[in-house]
Amino acid sequence: MTNPYELAQLAANELREKSGVDHYDVAVVLGSGWREGAAALGTPSSVVTTTSLSGFVAPTVAGHSGQILSLDVSGVSVALVAGRVHLYEGHTADQVVHPVRTVIAAGAKKVVLTNACGELDLIVRPGNVAVIRDHLNFTGTSPMEGPPPPAGYGSRFVDLTDLYSHRLRSVVHATVPDLHEGVYLGFRGPHYETPAEIEMVRTLGATLVGMSTVLEAIAARHLDAEVLGLSLVSNFAAGVSTGPLNHLEVLETGQSAAPSLGALLAQILPVL
Fold first, then answer.
1. Is residue 126 within 8 Å of 208, Cβ to Cβ?
2. Per-residue pLDDT reduced to its tens digit, 24-50
3. CATH number (domain holding residue 202)
4. Total count of domains within the chain
5. Is residue 54 within 8 Å of residue 14, measured between CB atoms?
6. What are the C-alpha distances in Å from 121 to residues 33, 103, 182, 222?
7. Which residue range(s) make up the domain with 99?
8. Closest CA relative to residue 73, chosen from 50, 45, 99
9. Whole-number Å distance between alpha carbons of 148 and 151
10. Dihedral sign for Cα atoms in the order 49, 55, 58, 61
11. N or C: which terminus of the chain has fewer CB atoms within 10 Å of its end residue's CB?
């Protein structure tokens, strides 16, 4: 089956059967460091291995376990996607966004995309969260490439004016007023950026940098889902601080911030 939309619908039907959840309200894609915080939301009613679903590929990055967890959070049916994959693992754009397309096909019309990122402007310190206001896509690809979407789906020329929903961001700020916003620039990776590249990012107006999120956001918006982006600042970007960068630092920051991340998700998911 080559049609990615039919494949997502098939996977959604399988997810419903395996999870026992007929309809999700919200989906949360867990980025590096976020799984530990999500554990504070409670015991899931089901845990589905992503590779048991059609079209899913196994993650190869530490901190991404390849599971979809179903939870009830204050009456809201939530799918936690702990199975993010990335372009740099050798996957296509369609494979990267397949989990998001699947949970939207399973009913979730609000998608929270989380990630760990480097920070440029020193306003948000490591261990804290920034709300993504907009993004710059430097991955060199798009989930809308290839054949046009089939009948019943929107145009491949999807409008991204309100990509990171103004409504959802307003709800978050009303609930957690001290969160700062930033523009996220998504590189392909997997190497970290050079100091010169970070200076370019700064010149272009971004304050957050990472290797995920942007393709998922585009795919979700194409399917008429509202998108909220949350970035855990795991480190200052290359050249902003003097130390070397490594993925272990990302995971350690997530572990240290787990209680606050869990509390943040518990606050905002019921009100989105």
1. no
2. 999 999 998 888 888 889 999 999 999
3. 3.40.50.1580
4. 1
5. yes
6. 21, 34, 10, 31
7. 4-271
8. 45
9. 9
10. negative
11. N
